[in-house]
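Here's what a typical entry looks like (Transcription antitermination protein NusB):
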Amino acid sequence: MKSRTKARCIALQVLYEQDMTSHLPGSIFEERLVDEPLDPSLQEFSRQIIFGVLPITKELDDYIAQHAPEWPLDQVAVIDRNIIRIAMWEFAVQQCTPVKVAINEAIELAKYFGSDSTPRFVNGVLGALANRSNEIHQAFASIVKSKSG
């Protein structure tokens, strides 16, 4: 597994566990690092994903719901939602990863963690969201600013 993929994998595990439990994300992250050590730069990348996604989860989910109307969000598997959230954060919110790379990475995570239909679902939703990446980036710039300030 490529190193940045491994960092995304840990971020996904943390986001998934945090979604399913009341565990603190920082504690979950530290536990994951014991099992899967990462280089400091990859730890930071994983940390940025986790703490970049968490404060804007509701807003990310609103966009996901718009682009997966046949699947009410509460019926989308938790792992699938978190894979899409990570990719969206990378290509639309933070713009730290090219769209195609973020989608390909999300599909790889979907193949590893999801069901047989997850890669196709993730690809379809992210493909639709990618067409609006600049609009999403602008919307989240103000959301992130209002939440941090």
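The first helix runs from residue 3 to 20.

More examples are in the samples folder.
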